[in-house]
Specification:
Structural class: mainly alpha
CATH architecture of the largest domain: Orthogonal Bundle
Number of domains: 2
Radius of gyration: 32 Å
Main location: membrane
Protein name: Phosphate transport system permease protein PstA
CATH class of the largest domain: Mainly Alpha
Oligomer: single chain
Low-confidence stretches: 1-32
Largest sheet: none
Distance between the termini: 81 Å
Helix content: over 70%
Number of strands: 0
Shape: flat
Order of helices and strands: HHHHHHHHHHHHHHH
Family: Belongs to the binding-protein-dependent transport system permease family. CysTW subfamily.
Strand content: under 5%
InterPro entries: MetI-like, MetI-like_sf, Phosphate_PstA, Phosphate_transprt_permease
Mean pLDDT: 83
CATH topology of the largest domain: MetI-like fold
Keywords: Cell membrane, Membrane, Phosphate transport, Transmembrane, Transmembrane helix, Transport
Length: 371
């Protein structure tokens, strides 16, 4: 008859296989929750959190901001607790992280939505045919438009793009395809990094000083402003194009070289078409970066009330400067100038949006065909 001690020893013995080797004891089975919340559960928790915190905030007499923040916090905690009880810790953590990331995204979108709403609502008052067909020549108060500013912005930005895009793309091609970390390539990279951080007013002063040395003091015309914007655009184009060229697989280049294709033709026919979408996006970002600049254009271009389509003679109007002067130095009645300032800002945003759409179209046209 075996004693209790013997029974305990027998229960803890390591089983022995037929080969005489000891095998580890079987690990205990961990019970896991297999339930899952229905699809409507997160929304129900959100509504309950919003109602609960809405009542509490109303009792405290606080504002909407506190209600939104407290609702987000309570919703995150409640979602984690409910999911942990029903679905387990891993799924609960996943839901909590999803709530945090979504909340961060919505917080980041708030300033953008606020700016869009403000500009559209304020600028819609003068978003009419008169604004796009008339200038401010002879206009003292109500009336007039921003045709001269729209034309000046397109002309100056177009000249800057014509100068900066070829320089930036060719520089990036040299750095990636020919530089091979040479001394010249390192120097170019250093100066591109320096130019990236140049304040816009410094670019304007540089362009003004350059043309003042060549043509004398007091020079103000559109091409000087285009040169200032070119200084700001080049580093953006170089950096974006360089990053796009770096992601092209070397296998594509080697396959082209194996067929006897020269390097310049490989770059032109293989490398650049492969990254055309990314390059177009970088160029669009560069244009959007400079099209709203005000400080360098105040120094180099000045302001004009009438239409001037000659960028090599006389001051020109641009949308940023037009909006700035309409808001900072309004006339009588003040409301007419403020309305024109907001409408100029709205038109500027629409131009940037059109450029983004154009970049998407270009990327689709020049993207490599997969089938």
């Amino acid at each position: 008859m075996s004693t209790g001690t013997e029974r305990n020893r027998t229960d803890t013995e390591v089983p022995v296989t037929s080969t005489g080797l000891e095998t580890p004891a079987a690990t205990p089975t961990v019970l896991r929750r297999t339930g899952s919340l229905p699809n409507w559960a997160p929304w129900a928790v959100l509504v309950a959190s919003a109602v609960l915190m809405g009542g509490l905030v109303a009792l405290l007499g606080s504002g909407v901001g506190l209600w939104v923040v407290s609702t987000a916090v309570v919703y995150a905690v409640a979602t984690y607790v409910v999911s942990r009880v029903v679905e387990g810790g891993r799924r609960a953590t996943d839901r909590l992280v999803t709530v945090v990331v979504t909340t961060a995204f919505l917080l980041a979108m708030l300033p953008l939505v606020s700016v869009l709403y403000t500009v559209v609502s304020e600028g819609w008052a003068r978003f009419d045919a008169t604004f796009f067909t008339q200038s401010m020549r002879g206009i003292v108060g109500v009336g007039g438009g921003g045709l001269h500013a729209i034309q000046g912005t397109l002309i100056i930005t177009g000249l800057a793009a014509l100068m900066s895009i070829p320089i930036g793309i060719l520089t990036a091609i040299y750095l990636v395809e020919y530089g091979n970390n040479s001394r010249l390539a390192r120097v170019i990279t250093f100066f591109v990094d320096v130019m990236t951080g140049i304040p816009s007013i410094v670019a304007g002063l540089f362009a003004y000083a350059l043309f003042a040395l060549l043509l004398g003091p007091g020079v103000r015309f559109g091409f000087v402003g285009a040169v200032a914007l070119t200084v700001l655009m080049i580093p953006i184009v170089v950096r974006s194009t360089e990053e796009m060229l770096k992601i092209v697989p070397n296998e594509l280049r080697e396959a082209s070289f194996a067929l006897g294709v020269p390097k310049w033709r490989t770059i032109l026919k293989v490398v650049i078409p492969t990254t055309a979408g990314g390059i177009a996006t970088g160029i669009t970002l560069a244009v959007a970066r400079v099209i709203g600049e005000t400080a360098p254009l105040l120094v180099t271009v000045g302001a004009a009330l009438g239409i001037n389509l000659n960028p090599f003679s006389g001051p020109m109007a641009t949308l940023p400067v037009f909006s700035y002067y309409s808001y900072a130095v309004p006339g009588i009645p003040r409301e007419a100038f403020i309305d024109r300032a907001w409408t100029a800002a709205l038109v500027l945003m629409l131009i940037v949006m059109v450029l983004n759409i154009l970049a998407r179209v270009i990327s689709r046209i020049f993207a490599p065909k997969t089938r």
